Amino acid sequence: MISLQNKIILITGASSGIGTACARIFAEAGAKLILAARRWELLQQLRDVLKQEFKAEVHLLQLDVRDRVAVESAISNLPDAWSEIDILINNAGLSRGLDKLHEGSFQDWEEMIDTNIKGLLYLTRYVVPGMVKRDRGHIVNLGSIAGHQTYPSGNVYCATKAAVKAISEGLKQDLLGTAIRVTSVDPGMVETEFSNVRFHGDDERAKKVYQGVKPLTPEDIADVIFFCTTRSPHVNINEVILMPVDQASATLVNRRS
């Protein structure tokens, strides 16, 4: 098992959900955290909690991963003490809408493509060259069961997560011959802000997604990511698909009530 003491870990989408859960588990392990998100106040609150509970060293980036120039600036202007990133966790992502393709919202499409694909590419493009130069590092991409199985009205979201799967596989191939590892963690149902965001803040509709089901938690996903990043250096866990016991596929869910 690799020690993460003083390793520098960059987590996007860190202000809530899986990103926050990752920040906590890595802080407890003694890692130094670069936390990136759009919501500055939530980032500051998280930093204060991590410092109080774990005495963690934390560097904050208010960042929209869709903005390529902002991503380039954020990475190139990291203080020297924070510039050698050991683990990149591309967690920022979202789903918008649940419309049939021929009735879909162009704005929803663009937001998903810009965040889930282009944002992940931007971070990867600006962080990985440093890893290659140092011949060490690990990229963890947050995919989804939706990248493996398309479901009705999932069209563009499923396409973006299929892209994450392809990008992860391609990156692993491109890094062959280096000591850098690449992992895609692809969950099924996880209770986060995901459904609330998908339904544009409709809390009642979001709650129905998880009704009668015990979904995965952000902590479950963070635990799997932590496991993948702490294996022996010669071990690369390429892909992990995990779902709650009450889910058998993207569309098959056992609802108990």
Automatic annotation (TrEMBL):
InterPro entries: NAD(P)-bd_dom_sf, SDR_fam. GO terms for molecular function: oxidoreductase activity, acting on the CH-OH group of donors, NAD or NADP as acceptor. Keywords: Oxidoreductase. Belongs to the short-chain dehydrogenases/reductases (SDR) family. This is SDR family oxidoreductase. The lineage of its organism: Bacteria, Bacillati, Cyanobacteriota, Cyanophyceae, Nostocales.
